[in-house]
Design brief:
Blueprint lengths: L8 H14 L3 H17 L5 H15 L10
Helix pairs in contact: 1-2
Length: 72
């Protein structure tokens, strides 16, 4: 379900620029930022990079792209 919201022009422009680079729609870019913000607020001890790596790993697992880790 979609919901229309109002955002500032500067934020919309930043999202447009970033979405082109990241190959996302503008809406998906804003959703991504919101998802990261929510996770970081709920887990203040985690860094942005750790959260981003977790999200990448989760996506790779859903796509069957993971390989077993070989110790030592």
């Amino acid at each position: 379900m979609s919901v229309a919201i109002r955002i500032s022009t500067p934020l919309a422009n930043k999202a447009k620029s970033r979405s082109r680079v990241m190959h996302r729609s503008v809406a998906r870019q804003i959703e991504y930022w919101a998802e990261l913000g929510e996770i970081l607020e709920d887990n203040p001890d985690l860094t942005f990079r750790v959260v981003q790596d977790i999200l990448i790993g989760r996506e790779e697992a859903q796509n069957g792209e993971l390989a077993p880790y070989e110790f030592g």
